[in-house]
Amino acid sequence: MKEIKVKKKKKLYEGKAKIVYETENEELLIQEFKDDATAFDGKKKGKIKEKGAFNNQISGRLFTFLESYHVPTHFVSQFSANAMVIKRLEMIPVEVVMRNVATGSLVKRYGVKDGTELDHPIIEFYLKDDAKHDPMINEDHVIAFGHADADEIKLIKRYAQKINAVLQSFFFRRDMVLVDFKLEFGRGKSGKIKLGDEISPDTCRLWDVQSGEKLDKDRFRQDLGKVEEAYREVHRRVFS
Ligand SMILES: Nc1ncnc2c1ncn2[C@@H]1O[C@H](COP(=O)(O)OP(=O)(O)O)[C@@H](O)[C@H]1O
Ligand SMILES: [Mg+2]
């Protein structure tokens, strides 16, 4: 792996799960993963021991794997146990959700039976706006609000579908079903669309193939216990 030495400078942004810092290189940032956990629009708060390190390392591994399939990501290198060096992106404030199995809000909104395998993966867009509770939007909203143009959306959808196919088999080989996940994209220096943010048990639903046991943030959301153990187990499998 290429060694990129950068120094942590000014804090640029602190979100719910991560802190983003500037570096002495204008184009590079440091993304630090926190142990803080939030759910239900920030109404439920807690801490999960070592989550920051697990999510940082899992994300790094998955970004590297996706790059090998020619999916451009912001990942540059690991920086520390719980932080990575990333390329600065102009983020598109849209959360892209891919679903392979019906659960969560899909069940609530449409009444599909929980756990139903979807014949066709579903892609959804949500406006990333905490104050508005991240409302669901469609491609026309994204264009009309000026967040991305039609070509960018087409590319984002293509990347999301490819990421889904690649990660579904990656996780299945490690005895996990990739139920659904959330992605965030942005534009790099030359305007090129790249995958940003993170891919981790905070942003994916992962079910054990044999037992159906949940191995993701739903353990925290639903008070299922063994939360830290689930993150540790996903980390172990991702690096196996
Ligand atoms: N490569 C990047 N360049 C700039 N900002 C990024 C990049 N990747 C992710 N981000 C943004 O950094 C923030 C990460 O912190 P997080 O705790 O997830 O925040 P939030 O609570 O807003 O989701 C997010 O707002 C995310 O959109
Ligand atoms: Mg976030």
Characterize the structure shown.
The chain has 240 residues and is of the alpha+beta class. It has two domains: 8-87, Phosphorylase Kinase, domain 1, CATH 3.30.200; 90-226, D-amino Acid Aminotransferase, Chain A, domain 1, CATH 3.30.470.20. The chain contains six helices and 13 strands. The chain has helices spanning 51-67, 105-110, 139-144, 150-172, 218-221, 227-238, and strands spanning 8-14, 18-23, 28-33, 36-39, 44-47, 75-80, 83-87, 90-101, 117-127, 136-137, 176-187, 193-195, 204-208. Strands 8, 9, 10, 11, 12 and 13 form a six-stranded antiparallel β-sheet that branches. The protein has a five-stranded antiparallel β-sheet with strand order 1-2-3-7-6, covered by helices on one side. A two-stranded antiparallel sheet has the order 4-5. Strand 1 (8-14) and strand 2 (18-23) form a beta hairpin. Helix 1 (51-67) packs parallel to helix 6. The two termini are 19 Å apart. The mean pLDDT is 97. Magnesium ion binds next to loops.
Mind telling me the CATH class of the largest domain?
Alpha Beta
Regions with little confidence, pLDDT below 50 for 5+ residues: none
What characterizes the major β-sheet? 6 strands, antiparallel
CATH level-four homologous superfamily name of the largest domain:
ATP-grasp fold, B domain
The helix content, as a percent range, equals: 25-40%
Strand proportion, as a percent range, falls in 25-35%
Output the structural class: alpha+beta
Small molecules in complex: adenosine-5'-diphosphate, magnesium ion
- Could you report the average pLDDT, rounded to the nearest whole number? 97
Distance between the termini: 19 Å
What is the number of helices? 6
CATH architecture of the largest domain: 2-Layer Sandwich
Beta strands, count: 13
Overall, the morphology is globular
Number of domains: 2
Radius of gyration: 17 Å
CATH topology description of the largest domain: D-amino Acid Aminotransferase, Chain A, domain 1
What's the order of the H and E elements?
A: EEEEEHEEEHEEHHEEEHH
